[in-house]
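To whoever picks this up:

The nightly regression suite flagged Luciferase-like domain-containing protein as changed. Nothing in the input moved, so I suspect the structure step. Input below, exactly as stored in the fixture:
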Amino acid sequence: MNWAGRFRAALADFTSVPRPLDGVPPFVWHGSVRTSEIAEQAARYGDGFFVNNMFAPMEHYARSVALYRRRFTHHGDGAPEDGAVGAGSGIWVHANSQEAVREYRP
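Regenerated output under the current build:
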């Protein structure tokens, strides 16, 4: 592939590897902490939506997941429950909570 654009160096005889198996692209996760635009993007492409629930109330993430599932169906990718949703958060474990807080915080 050859490509030239405005915001990065041109590509000359570029090939990406590994190539999709049997012409099927790999499954992609779109991750979001705060913005609903990522939920829309994941739904538009029929990809998975991963929420990293670290900074906001759970209601925020519930709204993001609900938006993703509505838009997943809107874009013709399947029923709302067919949209792949993942969630995660950070955790710091120590012998007791006081040591964990002392070591984790700046």
